[in-house]
Design brief:
mainly alpha
């Protein structure tokens, strides 16, 4: 058996795959695992993938929580993470939250 090293690239790819498969709970589980790891530090891409996974399934509260965590950890946001957070709020008619 070949063992794949868990690094930021593999975590981000798997979280992104979960997003595309509308598996937001699995995406969050993997993201939480990454947060607890001492070897891997989440970056803009991994945060964006996790926020997008929540947004895709209407989990606006989780998407905003991740976005706030992104800011707290001083991880640079990008167009993808911003749009995903806003879209999550819009889909659930929580547009006021997107303005905060």
């Amino acid at each position: 058996q070949t063992k794949v090293e868990c690094n930021i690239v593999t975590y981000s790819a798997v979280v992104s795959a979960c997003e595309k498969g509308s598996q937001w709970e699995k995406a969050l589980h993997l993201f939480s695992e990454m947060l607890g790891s001492k070897k891997v530090e989440p970056n803009t891409i991994s945060f964006s993938a996790a926020i997008s996974a929540c947004a895709r399934t209407g989990e606006w509260e989780a998407a905003l929580l991740l976005f706030r965590l992104m800011i707290q950890r001083k991880v640079d946001s990008n167009t993808i993470s911003l749009n995903a957070a806003i879209s999550a709020c819009e889909e659930q008619c929580e547009w006021e939250k997107a303005l905060q």
